Amino acid sequence: MKRTVIVPDLQVPYHDEVAVRNVASxxxxxxxDSVITLGDEIDLPQISRWSDGTPGWYEQTLAxxxxxxxxxxxxxxxxxxxxxxxxxxxxxxxxxxxMKKIPAFLALPELRFERFMRLDExxxxxxxxxxxxxxxxxxxxGDEQGINPNAGLTALGAARRHGLSVICGHTHRAGQSAFTExxxxxxxxxxxxxxGGHLMDVRKAGYTKGTMNWQQxxxxxxxxxxxxxxxxxxxxxxxxxxxxxRAR
Length: 248
Fold this sequence. Notes:
248 residues; alpha/beta
């Protein structure tokens, strides 16, 4: 039985250090075959289009954020047999700003996102396209189509587009839904959509002005059985009847 842990949006440096540490400790104990991160592992606010022309554009913190993100990723993947990362809108920011401002720099291999984030050193495989991680399931970031404000429905919409069950991040919501095709009493495909939540510290997400419909969570997959693990407000969570993590 293949066991996979799927980690949603971290958005370093806005990650929740307690929640991330607790999930990393669980992964160390669980020893999964695979860890998948669903994108937005690093926020890169310094080079976002929202920072262009503001003081944030000139902040000299990019290297520090990258190094922190590498450390966080290592804590999550070091005890798995393999690790995978899904492309996302935040991690696309590096390519987008170079393409817009200094396109000649695209020829520098060290500025490719995979090299910039040291994914080879971490043993992480980067997927620019949907990643088929289990029979009938693919992982995507979730920004590929419109967003539904109800948890699980963005992923379900993606599932109906892909014709496969989908796990995604991006919405920061934790939930799941399903759609069954049936005619004349005969069951066809059953498509499932699961959104993995987030592992951010919402206090650091100033752009929400304190109002958001987000939930902290992560996902465990055992073969094709998907379980959404919700975090309590204190950063702990329960798996198979056992509570994990240290309360904040």
